[in-house]
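Problem statement: downstream parser choked on a complex file, so we are re-checking the raw output for the nicotinamide-adenine-dinucleotide run. The parser issue turned out to be on our end (a line-ending mismatch), but while we're here, posting the original submission so the record is complete.
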Amino acid sequence: MTKIGIVGIGRLGLCLALNLERAGFNILGVDSNTDYIQSIQSKALTSNEPHVELFLNEAKNLTVSTELNSVINSETQLIFICVPTPSKIDGSFNHSFIDDVCDEILKLAPPKNKTHLIINSTVMPGYCNSLNDRMSLHNYTVSYNPEFIAQGSIIKDQQFPNQVLIGEANEDVGDKIEAIYRSFCKNTPRYSRMSRTEAEITKLAVNCFLTTKIAFANSIGDLTIKYDVNQNNVLAAVGADERIGPQFLRYGFGYGGPCLPRDNRAMNKAANHVGLELPISEATDQSNDLHRSFQLETFEQNYSKDEQIVFSELTYKSDSDIIEESQQLELAVDLAHKGYNILLKDRKIVIEQIRIIHEDLFTYEVLEDD
Ligand SMILES: NC(=O)c1ccc[n+]([C@@H]2O[C@H](COP(=O)([O-])OP(=O)(O)OC[C@H]3O[C@@H](n4cnc5c(N)ncnc54)[C@H](O)[C@@H]3O)[C@@H](O)[C@H]2O)c1
């Protein structure tokens, strides 16, 4: 049974581990969070991500540890790295978690057989080439294999990807990564194989394009409202043009969450790094903010401060529990600061997070879980 290592088995890495385990691989997962590892070992982990608890309970070939050498000292020749890459203030990504893992790896004896590190974390263009330069002296290769998944459907998104993006160290490693995905994907995705830097640019470009499309739809929708016509009629017709397509072209709240906004900003930073401007990225961010201001004005025109305004579903996406950069929550905050009486209705896990940050700025109602 082929062994695969995964360093960083958080939201993304654990789902990958579970999908691979079910496809017949022997998975060695490493995570620095001791309590978390214990909860996985004892199968007591609770997760809002569909299928995770079930797959974990059924897993027979998943071993987890806090010790990196449990992976490096084994015969594992394929190691995914899926640790955080938080955004820096300037919009680029902080790679220090990956660097720390690699520093630790380099303290251990080099592997006898060529070992392939596959970076899953989102990184800036050029990073994987520089990491490969460092690691290749010690019998490692570095490839880049980012995923296009959304919170709340990670397991399913991994099983049914539109495309598998592989920034390969060489053709042989690319074949190995493709074979891994062929063994667990339940559809026939496009395998987009390319150089590491091409894949790094592609990952950011896809998310930059999606944010732009969402911001565009909302801007056109705002315009139709000003002209007192129906936004859905216009957007449905725009999306019916096959060159454009209907996906991500609905009128609603702006984009948010932990991936799209930061990947869009990082795209601009990547351009600046090589002396280019990429104004589309900044304009998209600005449009998202302008749309929220437009919605704020609309509420102000339609509600008096004596009335209660109800917001339900405060997460950035309905099937997740993440409130990071949620535009509907930011709108509710703006209204509350202007003196409006706002009732927030959502699941307990969401309300608890908001209550910690915003205390009694709002009235809250906890909805029963489905
Ligand atoms: N979650 C998503 O929907 C998603 C989507 C696309 C891309 N990504 C990218 O994947 C990466 C990981 O995201 P995530 O959401 O899984 O993050 P996460 O915070 O849920 O998980 C990361 C895990 O890495 C562990 N870790 C940190 N340092 C470590 C170390 N030195 N050794 C071992 N483990 C370590 C943490 O304890 C944590 O469990 C990020 O770069 C993110 O941008 C995530």
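For whoever reads this later: The CA atoms of residues 316 and 326 lie 4 Å apart.
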